[in-house]
């Protein structure tokens, strides 16, 4: 017999932390699956003789679907509640990972990533859960919990993917399936060396679905849901962008995420070429990055947010990431690679909770799902532009060029964040009573 689901009031995090813990666990498991496959994708596409530009387009196809579907999921969650949207999207992710595991062509891999992008466009809805149950003062810390789940996913995911994406594991899995169901089934289920990581990610997704169904409460009360027909996309966009200050933050996020996408498309291939590393060692570097993200977003971000506020942490994080990106091409040894990777991770650990918190605090209470979904959609559009540009730059100018371009763009973002700081602080400090960002901002 299932437990009754109850909707929580804003600020309930102070009295009841279980919904935030459940969302953390759901996002963590989701991101472990995501982290397993992200470092493997360029290598798998390379196995199908994809060009660097095609690898960039593969990353962009995932993000294109997130651009289209993140606002849709967010607006639907404002109308029907957060829980059904999360359950539906997790189910889609299981199917996508299963298809990717069994792919034997680049075209089918593209199809799997499209489906994964549609399913994975749910982070705005997860962030809306955080907005439902936190006060404005808690918002940055709550968004940091989501970020910590990302970081932990990138500790365990890439390491697991690196271990599973080896010929020995593939041969053992194929032999086991052949013994149970025959060689034909084994060949269909494990067509490449990279099938085991994707199959494991699908299994994690199935576990996540059961967990979410059993223990995730609904956090949006019926009386706070939007009534009537869903707004057309253009009307919803105009409505969301009407909040003072939010356009600049969303534009800044677009540039930041574009730079990161440019970096990501080249990073695995850079390590493969510079150090002659395979999936296992590359996975360990992604895990190392995840450790630092967790240290920042899982522990340090709360005290830092209270002490300095979003408007100070954001430019500091952009500076760290910009310097880290720019210096990566000079790396000649593993210690320098690890040091710069940690610098990038710490900077990004400051950036993302700050931006997410600003977007939430500048938005109306009844638009949290829609606006945070739009925020994720704009980030997804940037993840189309960034990897596509990074792949073209890589093809034409070499492996160092994407890092230099990404670093320069991050430093430009730092200048923009410093220019916006005063106006954003003033806006947060003068919010009317009852607004999600109404409590005093940190100077």
Describe this structure in words.
It is a single chain. This protein has 443 residues and is mostly helical. Helices cover 79% and strands 0% of the residues. It has helices spanning 18-37, 40-47, 52-80, 82-101, 106-119, 123-133, 136-164, 167-181, 183-189, 195-215, 233-241, 246-275, 279-308, 310-327, 334-361, 368-397, 401-429. Helix 3 (52-80) packs antiparallel against helix 4 (82-101) and helix 12 (246-275) runs antiparallel to helix 17. It is globular. Mean pLDDT is 78; it is low at 1-17 and 432-443.
Features:
Growth Hormone, Chain: A, disordered N terminus, mainly alpha, disordered C terminus
Major sheet details: none
Question: What share of the residues does DSSP label as strand, in percent?
Answer: under 5%
The number of distinct β-strands equals 0
Full CATH superfamily name:
MFS general substrate transporter like domains
Q: Helix/strand-derived class?
A: mainly alpha
Classified by CATH, the class is Mainly Alpha
Q: How many structural units, i.e. domains?
A: 1
Output the CATH topology: Growth Hormone, Chain: A
Order of helices and strands: HHHHHHHHHHHHHHHHH
User: Which architecture would the CATH scheme give at its second level?
Assistant: Up-down Bundle
Name the helicity range.
over 70%
Unreliable residue stretches: 1-17, 432-443
Q: In angstroms, what separates the terminal alpha carbons?
A: 50 Å
């Amino acid at each position: 017999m299932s437990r009754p689901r109850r909707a929580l009031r804003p600020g309930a995090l102070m009295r009841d932390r279980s919904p935030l813990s459940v969302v953390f666990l759901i996002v963590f498991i989701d991101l472990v699956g995501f982290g397993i496959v992200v470092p493997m994708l360029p290598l798998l596409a390379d196995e199908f003789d994809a060009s660097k530009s095609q690898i960039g387009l593969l990353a962009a196809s995932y993000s294109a679907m997130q651009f289209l579907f993140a606002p849709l999921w967010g607006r639907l969650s404002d109308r029907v509640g957060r829980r059904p949207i999360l359950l539906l999207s997790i189910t889609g992710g299981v199917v996508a990972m299963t298809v990717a595991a069994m792919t034997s062509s680049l075209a089918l891999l593209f199809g799997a990533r499209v489906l994964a992008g549609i399913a994975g466009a749910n982070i705005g809805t997860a962030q809306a859960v955080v907005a439902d149950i936190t006060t404005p003062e808690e918002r940055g810390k709550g968004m940091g919990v989501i970020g910590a789940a990302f970081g932990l996913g990138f500790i365990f995911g890439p390491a697991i993917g690196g271990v599973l994406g080896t010929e020995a594991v593939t041969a053992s899995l194929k032999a086991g399936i052949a013994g149970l169901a025959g060689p034909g089934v084994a060949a269909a289920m494990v067509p490449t060396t990279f099938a085991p990581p994707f199959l494991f990610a699908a299994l994690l997704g199935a576990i996540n679905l059961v967990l979410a169904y059993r223990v995730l409460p609904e956090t949006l009360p019926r009386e706070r849901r939007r009534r009537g027909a869903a707004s057309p996309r253009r009307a919803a966009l105009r409505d969301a962008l009407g909040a003072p200050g939010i356009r600049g933050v969303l534009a800044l996020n677009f540039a930041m995420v574009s730079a990161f996408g440019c970096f990501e498309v080249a990073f695995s291939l850079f390590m493969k070429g510079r150090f002659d590393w395979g999936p296992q060692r590359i996975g360990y570097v992604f895990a190392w990055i995840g450790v630092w993200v967790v240290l920042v977003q899982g522990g340090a971000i709360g005290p830092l947010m209270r002490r300095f506020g979003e408007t100070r942490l954001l430019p500091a994080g952009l500076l760290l990431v910009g310097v880290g990106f720019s210096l990566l091409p000079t790396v000649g040894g593993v210690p320098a690679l690890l040091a710069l990777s940690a610098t990038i991770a710490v900077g990004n650990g400051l950036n993302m909770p700050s931006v997410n918190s600003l977007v939430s605090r500048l938005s109306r209470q009844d638009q949290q799902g829609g606006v945070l979904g739009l925020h994720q959609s704009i980030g997804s559009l940037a993840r189309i532009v960034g990897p596509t540009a990074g792949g073209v730059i890589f093809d034409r100018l070499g492996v160092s060029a994407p890092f230099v371009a990404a670093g320069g763009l991050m430093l430009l973002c730092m200048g923009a964040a410093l220019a916006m700081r005063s106006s954003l602080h003033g806006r947060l400090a003068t919010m009317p009573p009852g607004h999600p960002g109404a409590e005093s901002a940190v100077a």
